[in-house]
Amino acid sequence: MEEGKTMADFENEINASMKKFREGDLVKGIVAGIDDYLVHVDLGTYMQGIILPTELSNDPDYRAMDNLVIGQEISTVVIKDDDGNGNLVLSLKEATETLAWQSLKDGQLERKIYEVKITGQVNGGMVAYLEGIRGFIPISRLSIKRVEDDEKASYIGKKINVIVIEANEEKRNLILSAREIEEEQARKEYEDKVKAIKPGLVTKGIVESIMPYGCFVDLGDGISGLVHISQIAHERIKTPHEVVKEGDEVNVKVIDIKDGKVSLSMKALVDVMEKSEPEDDTPTEYSSDEDATTGMASLLAGIKLD
To answer: Is CATH 2.40.50.140 the right assignment for the domain spanning 111-183?
Structure first.
């Protein structure tokens, strides 16, 4: 008797080794051997399990040598209780699907990001396998940019990040999307760029669009700001079209940044430029706390002559 083991322990081990399995049972085992044609699984019973290459995965790129290691615990489903040689025939892909659907449903709720490899194209989108499940990526969700049909082939073999949009086990629908991830990345990059802009900045920009309430100015690097109609000119105007047109290069000053929106002013910059203009050397008028006069006596007052 092995040290530390009781008769009850041995009895339990014997009972476990004699356990009977039925088709459809979900069982765990240890990978005992891997070759090009079979994966051998130790189930802790008098019967050994085998997995045929066709029962490894629905993913055409799956290779047992690359994805399994000896000693690894795996879950499988019994698809035949005897292959004629005393072995249980197991399916890794069926067990993977059973466990994967629940995992993917959880991932959908958590908006988990997965990396997938695009393996093919079909009408309306692309195909990628996730946790052994065939997923569909609609062409409209392949990228934040518009992807044309003749561009789809360039995505085959490419790895991209996706989230799960739908995981319906009953209908066997797995819908994936990369667009939302790219949108989130673009939003963060935009916010970081806006944070780098400080009120008071004076710069140039191009009028990209005109609305009744103002005009939007492209500041470059993907950043735009609004010049409200009240900030376009000193004089009252009925429409921005009176002063600017699309494509104009204008000087603007950043006057406020709030909730990621940049507020600009053309009027404030005109004020700054007027203040910075050099004074005319020609005498015009002088004012002080006292009454101003241009009389000779006043001009000479206070000057001591020898």
So the answer is: yes
> Do 229 and 258 form a contact (C-beta atoms < 8 A)?
no
SS3 276: helix
Superfamily holding 9-95: Nucleic acid-binding proteins (2.40.50.140)
AA identity, residue 180:
E
Q: How far apart are CA 140 and CA 255, in angstroms?
A: 38
Paired tokens of 62? 């799956």
Q: In whole angstroms, what is the distance from residue 66 CA to residue 61 CA?
A: 10
pTM greater than 0.70 (yes/no): no
Tell me the mean pLDDT in the region 249-266. Answer: 92
In words, the CATH class of domain 198-276 is mainly beta
Counting DSSP H helices and E strands in the chain, the numbers are 6, 15
Give yes or no on whether 111-183 and 198-276 have one common fold: yes
Ramachandran region, residue 240 (left: φ > 0; alpha: ψ -120 to 50; beta: rest): alpha
Across the chain, what does the average pLDDT equal?
Answer: 83
Q: In the chain, what are the domain boundaries?
A: 9-95, 111-183, 198-276
- d(CA 278, CA 264) in angstroms, rounded, equals 26
Q: Which two tokens stand for residue 52?
A: 């045929």
Between 279 and 146, where is the model more confident? 146
Instruction: Please say if the pLDDT value at position 228 is more than 80.
Output: yes
Q: Is 24 left (phi over 0), alpha (psi -120 to 50) or beta?
A: left
Smallest CA-to-CA distance from 51 within 116, 95, 99 is with 95
Q: How confident is the model at residue 174 (pLDDT cuts 50, 70, 90)?
A: very high
